[in-house]
Design a protein that fits this description.
The structure is a single chain. By secondary structure, the protein is of the alpha+beta class. It has two domains: about 90 residues, Phosphorylase Kinase, domain 1 (2-Layer Sandwich), CATH 3.30.200.20; about 190 residues, Alpha-Beta Complex (Aminoglycoside 3'-phosphotransferase, Chain: A, domain 2). About 45% of the residues lie in helices and about 15% in strands. It contains ten helices and ten strands. A five-stranded antiparallel β-sheet has the order 1-2-3-5-4.
Length: about 300
């Protein structure tokens, strides 16, 4: 796993997206198109007033895109926070090698730019409870999300060393949370989870209400502690974080693993962010500071 944000393997620009739309969805090809963002795996474009085009920039994202296209339309039904199930899908062509999607547009700010209100804590817990249902045998597997934390130890410790060299974020409290998570029963869950509930993947409207949960590329079946870790990514106050836990009611073992996953996400975001993404670094710092504050409290 590279330390910083990986380089694109295919240059995804407006010209390419216009060609893709013209080839498969010509009725959308003349709508206004504007670049929104480039993440680790995909590039996003606003299409007209109602759509987003999501196009992989790396080969590894192609299978993740297929998982979204296959499973998300079924999973979003009944969730208390909206999610962007694909409206149209694109297939590989002679000039672009991977699948891509047209998604619905949701207004809102990423939660790292505008934090959700405290009154959204129960809604977030309800979202997790609705999502975290038993998954079928053919649900997608993910080698790095929903897995036992022991699978991530080597990479996480390498990142901790780098973060410790550059910051004072790896405190005894953080080390203790990580150790306790590793010492906890690893569980054997096979429930649906989002897999990547950091603050840039949750949208909040101007009033602080959740408007959508986006970026389902890491959708998988596994240990729901991976998602519960999002509590420390999203909520500023300890009161709101406790309200999530009071509503979700995790076991002690699940809570310990969730905090361990929060440490992992915080360390990964800080480590990668200090190289080439200050926004990631700030998001990771918030997670680690919130964990520390809850422990000290």
């Amino acid at each position: 796993m590279p330390a910083g944000r990986p380089e694109a393997e295919v240059e995804v620009d407006e010209t390419l997206v216009r060609r893709l739309l013209s080839a498969e969805h010509p009725d959308l090809a003349d709508l206004p198109l504007a670049h929104l963002d480039s993440g680790w795996d995909n590039v996003l474009f606003r299409l007209g007033d109602a759509f987003v085009v999501r196009v992989p920039r790396r080969k590894i994202a192609a299978d993740l895109m297929r998982n979204e296209q296959r499973w998300l339309p079924e999973l979003v039904r009944g969730l208390p926070i909206p999610a962007p199930a694909p409206i149209r899908v694109g297939t590989p062509t002679h000039f672009y090698p991977w699948p891509w999607s047209v998604l619905p547009w949701f207004d809102g700010h990423c939660a790292d730019e505008l934090a959700p209100s405290e009154d959204q804590a129960a809604r977030f817990a309800d979202f997790l409870l609705a999502l975290h249902q038993e998954a079928p045998d053919d649900a997608p597997a993910n080698p790095v999300r929903g897995v036992r934390l022991s699978v991530r130890v080597e990479n996480t410790l390498e990142r901790m060393i780098r973060v410790r060299e550059k910051t004072d974020l790896i405190t005894p409290a953080i080390e203790s949370i990580w150790k306790q998570a590793l010492d906890t029963d690893p569980g054997s869950g096979h429930r649906w989870l989002h897999g990547d509930l950091h603050a840039q993947n949750v949208l909040v409207d101007d009033s602080g209400q959740f408007s959508a949960v986006i970026d389902w590329g890491d959708l998988t079946a596994g240990d729901v502690a991976t998602d519960l870790a999002g509590t420390w990514a999203l909520f500023e106050s300890a009161t709101a974080r406790q309200a999530v836990l009071d509503c979700y009611q995790p076991t002690e073992e699940l809570l310990a693993r969730a905090k361990g996953w929060a440490v992992l996400f915080g360390v990964v975001l800080v480590d990668s962010g200090l190289i080439n993404s200050p926004r990631h670094a700030r998001a990771g710092e918030r997670i680690l500071l919130r964990l520390r504050d809850d422990t000290n409290g």
